[in-house]
Fold this protein.
Amino acid sequence: MFSDPHGDPLHSAVLTLEEAILRFGRDKRNGRRVVFTNGCFDLLHPGHIRGLELARELGDVLIIGLNSDASVRQLKGEGRPVLPHGERAEILAALESVDAVLIFDDLTPREVIARLLPDVLVKGGDWPGDQIVGREEVEAAGGRVVSIPVVPGYSTTAILRKIREGFGEKPQSKGSRASRAKS
């Protein structure tokens, strides 16, 4: 992926909300079913990939609402995100299952969902149905809300904890490759 001189990604699938509406708004769909999901996607792991693939199977276009750095910090605390939103967006946009990524600053994607009005709103099964932001807007417009199963064993928080704890590895003995590399 190439970047402009300021480091901004030049991936055509990273859109502003206005660009997403122009491309995928209700009057531009031509029968295509638009699916929307959102999240921080701080460290992409197999649970994210499998969830996005399941979401994509529910329609013809998958759009991801990506929390900005400021909103991730508010939601997850200091030290997050690990990767800035431009890099997270670029990684997500490169996935085969993803058609577009848009970055939003609010704590929730309610405004994005209300303006885009996807045909299908997808969230992980760890979200109670009555707490899924945008449910009312999507259902009022004739769309549906789908809860997909969370893939067990994957969590960005758990990955970060493992990194911080040094993977719990034992120190290598003296004749090991790491010791030889230092000399």
